[in-house]
Amino acid sequence: MGLDYQAIGTRVRRLRKARGLTQQTLAELSDQEPSNISHIERGATKLSLPTLVNIANALEVTVDELLCDSLPASKNVLEREVAQLLADCSHLELKIITETVLALKESLRRASLGG
Asked: Rounded CA gap, 26 and 29, in Å?
């Protein structure tokens, strides 16, 4: 499995916005040019390891949080992300989400078995 630069960029953008940072501020915190942050967020450029580490440090996350879409061993990152997404849901929202996930999981497993 190769690196999914689009997914990395999407995660960087989401984490940046969640922390209330502009691209300019993230660029300053990670020793990057603002245009480079823009390119990274769009998945239009490959990141060097030092750049990835600088961005992770600026966002106060681990590198595996940025790379989890490209690392099958990062299942725990995705599980934490789901838990955070569900943490503020109402009972009704959780019920609907659970039913949706069950149906999706069943459909995915049927598809992977051919049928």
From this structure: 5
Reduce the DSSP state of residue 110 to 3 states and report it.
helix
The residue type of 46 is K
pLDDT digits (tens), the chain, 115 positions: 688 999 999 999 999 999 999 999 999 999 999 999 999 999 999 999 999 999 999 999 999 899 988 887 778 888 988 999 999 999 999 999 999 999 999 999 988 876 5
How far is Cα 27 from Cα 38, in angstroms, rounded to an integer? Answer: 9
Q: Which amino acid is at 50?
A: P
Max Cα-Cα span within the chain: 51
A 10 A CB-CB count for 13 gives 18
- Do the Cβ atoms of 64 and 74 come closer than 8 Å? yes
Which residues neighbour 78 within 8 Å (Cβ) at sequence distance 6 or greater? 68
Query: b or e along 32-43 (b: 16 or more beta carbons within 10 Å of the residue's beta carbon)?
Result: beeebbbbbbeb
